[in-house]
Amino acid sequence: MDNLTEDHQERNIGIDGHINIGNIGGEVNHNFDTEKTASSTALAREELGEKDMSPVAGNSMHRSSSRPQLDLSGAAIQGNFEEKDPTILLPNQSDDISHLALDIGGSLIKLVYFSRHENQPVNDRRRKIIKARLGITNSNRMSYPILGGRLHFVKFETAKINECLDFIYSKQLHHSGMDSRHWQSESPNTGNTIIKATGGGAYKFADLFKERLGISIEKEDEMNCLVAGANFLLKAIRHEAFTHKEGQKEFVQIDSNDLFPYLLVNIGSGVSMIKVDGDGIYQRVSGTNVGGGTYWGLGKLLTKCKSFDELLELSQRGDNRTIDMLVGDIYGGMDYSKIGLSASTIASSFGKAISENKELEDYRPEDISLSLLRMISYNIGQISYLNALRFGLKRIFFGGFFIRGHAYTMDTISFAVQFWSKGQAQAMFLRHEGFLGALGAFMSYEKHGLDDLMVHQLVERFPMGAPYIGGNVHGPPLGDLNEKISWMEKFVQKGTEITAPVPMTPPGTTGLGGFEVPSSKGDTLRPDASKLNVGVLHLVPSLEVFPLLADPKTYEPNTIDLSDHGELEYWFTVLSEHMPDLVDKAVASEGGTEDAKRRGDAFARAFSAHLARLMEEPAAYGKLGLANLLELREECLREFHFLDAYRSIKQRENEASLAVLPDLLMEIDSMDEETRLLTLIEGVLAANIFDWGSRACVDLYHKGTIIEIYRMSRNKMQRPWGVDDFDIFKERMLGSAGKKPRQYKRALLFVDNSGADVVLGMLPLAREFLRRGTEVVLVANSLPALNDVTAMELPDIVAEAAKHCDVLRGAAEAGGLLVDAMINIQDSPTRERSISVPLMVVENGCGSPCIDLRQVSSELAAAAKDADLIILEGMGRALHTNYNAKFKCDALKLAMVKNQRLAAKLINGNIYDCVCRFEPAS
Amino acid sequence: MAGDGVEVAKLEEKELKLCEDQVSHLALDIGGSLIKMVYFSSSSSCSTDDQENGFIREGTNTSSGNLEYRVLSGRLHFLKFETSKISECIEFISSKRLQHYGDQGDEAPAGDKHIVKATGGGAFKFSDLFKEKLGIILDKVDEMSSLVAGANFLLKAVHHEAFTYMDGVKDYVQIDHKDLYPYLLVNVGSGVSMIKVDGDNEFERVSGTSVGGGTFWGLGKLLTKCKSFDELLELSHQGNNRVIDMLVGDIYGGTGYSKIGLTSTTIASSFGKAVSQNKELEDYRTEDVARSLLRMISNNIGQIAYLNALRFGLKRIFFGGFFIRGHEYTMDTISVAVHFWSNGEAKALFLHHEGFLGALGAFMSYEKQGCTDIAHQFMEEHSSVAKSPFCTSDRLESSTHTDVKDNGCIECRVQVRN
User: Per the database record, which ranges form the Damage-control phosphatase ARMT1-like metal-binding domain (chain A) (predicted)?
Assistant: First the structure.
């Protein structure tokens, strides 16, 4: 138990780079005495709302089914749902450091703040061994200059600045800024706190901040901030930029080495055009006074709209042809094709108003708004293009409050740029466009350590609140998980009276209808469907790019692109249908209590809302592949404290599989080399049928015991398989015509499911490699995802298997997976190691059924250095992701296709077809 | 708006009395807002003998004895009508029998059809109407070609055609027509076309914007309830745009944003002040609204024009089109915009006959039909006879006033093939 506790502690560090407590709603472990100080940090679980990576399989696997209660008596629970991530402030959690920066604009206040946590000493046994094995030294760890943490993006209306002040107060953000030491020494209100801010309001509201929060505002230059913010986003977030044409968003990956120069067009009240040549190197080259202020100002005069958003909303129902003079109006419906003007080109904005005998009142405000919007957007696009051309800039990025994710605005600007450049230049937009200034102000703090952050060290998470917002949510403040669940429940009750713009989930799922922001106030902003969601950026400095990727720049993990709406719809249905089963499992895993049921319902609602949001706007969360969608589900489970929904199932299946393993090994050992290799590969494919992620397979489980199904499945493996490179693989392994091939030095085996899959499929295969003198590294998930085996669980499974197999025992001992082996290594490592090549286990750094090899754990990256063979097993890692991935070493991709649609699409085959794809090093 | 029927009629009657009128060669530019008309009336009493002699001599020389020419002296008349009142235009043509110029034996058009050169979108749109009402077949001339031909003609032939206008000071610019090309021609009509001109009939429409005269007038009409373009212009003359525009100083608390070269009076956002003020349209003075609108549009046109000139390395930008109509504040704003964005390196130039480029160009195009060498000779004559008197009516004098009489005429000679 002590060891497990330590594991728990350690796991969180490794994955997230900081300590999360997975036990806010769970247990406070009193075995922590020796590390009281350190673990108290762990309790400073700041964001209840977005539990990432925190749950611990090893821990939960062994803990009692009744949930120990966390004593929160000393805690001040505060928070505000605006931020969708309520805060829990525990006393004495003083080393929780954060930074706050503001951009106070005319209409919106943008807030960026960062919460981070001290790193902790590494004390996980498995990891220690791995580090020793793989030669990861402590100095390596020291090379991470920054600590993990989270970057939050929040918006408030400037008119409601008090909400913003309350928020800052409730989060105690005003004690951070440049002067966090005061916070640590518990004398927070020294009045010395300085907060960086930009935007006109930084001047206007300086006194208010001083008076209410004791904050001194330090004004940062607006242009500086915009540029710094844009540079950070474009470098740090992989698909930050997107193009927008005819309503279609397409995310663009920008090589951060090839970013500069570019033109940044910030459309605020007026428009600034800035040529950016590097970090801090820029020049305002142009601008125009016809900007957002013109749209709103003129629009207000012409339509009597009360707000910018109202005006924008009007435009969506407008027809500008009633008021604009088109080329066709002048040419009697004909094009002026000679100069490339079609009949529908606007010849003169508002030009039709001249000849018609109409007053302002005779025109629909909708039409006026649209005409105005087109005029201004188009004009900005044109002037931007001319400036880009002037300086030979390839890329134009548009940002600022005017755009605010409005589809028509973006379309018009894109059209203008496209039209005038004859397709040579592209307008691009930024997902975080509203936060450029605030982010830039944030970057202006010295030594926040974010400058060198690499794209692979950032993970964006969309917590529960995400589906409802583009940043503005109004509702009652939420404190803890309980209130969050209540909110979800209330939400559903209110569902009938709230208009639902999002599509209904298909009947027969969780029965959750559409969502809308619950309006506590009548005048809240109505979310624009096309507006994009901004998640919380998790900074995970320990993540690395998998070193064996042939070309990390062109690597795309997802095989299936969900920007294809049909594909998205399909997966939406699959995930929706699978939900009741998942909820049952999750609830059962938590003892089936009333509390667990409530959480289960809340999870179902929240995840349904995510799905509904994505159906409404597929680009809402950025570029989304199937891997991301599946991971979102796992994240959502964790958010409602379902740490390991398949815990008991995994355990049961592991036990059942381990029981039949000796027989299987005997059977295999009786075969000749060639038959054995085929049988082992068949075994991997056959055992891969045990997959709780596949609906078809779940139905199978009720029809027999594990070994029966395994044998049946293996017997049905008729070659040739859907993709069958077995002969090539065999030749590489066994050679041909008496020529003995070089054995692999080290094989990385990416394992998939618990139970038969890993025990009867992958372990026997690993054993074969070990017998041939190849080191084997089993690569497993860091966090639970469905019934996937985790790196935490694997050593126990290997240890159990090793009881009946000398090969495995020797290798596991050599790899330090067995306790007594560890002692041996420490006593006389040389002698022990010479006996057997090692079998090791490393975590992959993720908690998803798929894997994005651009972001893997440092230990996997280290293990990969000497590897010359990669085996990816299972649909998630070999088909949904990485099917098309190319590696620097040989790669074998093994999976049974347990989905008809995927089988048809990928291999032109049928459900239960098998893939055995062998690709020599590229 | 000019083209007011009564006024036009009166003016023309006056001219008819002066010259024994032999009307011929009508050309039209039918735009989205205005119909511009150019026609020639010949009358020997309008010209002096020595000029006539000189012209004949010159004409004979240049034509190299290919053909014989009859030289007509007379005037080019410039008129305009609102497109929405096209019937007035048709009545005028009918009353002056302009469509019958071909019957006067100057030339022989094919058959009995009266062919009139026309350009602008309306040449397509109203083709049937002209046919029906006047029996005229509109021969469509490309709009851009016409603009360019008109501008080239004016810049080469008319002595004081181009001028700069800055801070209320008008400076004539003598343009060496050997060093005329390339230049950017910005025609500000309802919309705006920007044309790079490299020579006679060598040009390319490189840009344009939909924010033009039509926008000023259209939006202005909605915002101020003005009845005419001129009324709106007049209003703008008395307005103060600071009431409604958001200036850099408004954002930065009275100081400029000197770091990026913006003074406190620079407009940061046109109409931006309306955002924060709790005012309705009615609470603003129409004069101020008109002024803001004018500045917004002029500034924008100036900026886009400059950027295009820069792109092609063009030294000169000529602004034409009815939107400008000699309005000093408009010209001033455009000039300031060009000056501002080019850091003083480029200058906006304006044309006296700005509104008639297209119509004039259409008029010049008769040459191509093989009927006469008018255009060619016309230019030769004027460029070689610098002292040639041209009757520009009150244009020159009035251009500093807000209301310009657009109807005028140029005294000239036309050579017609016998």
Answer: 588-906
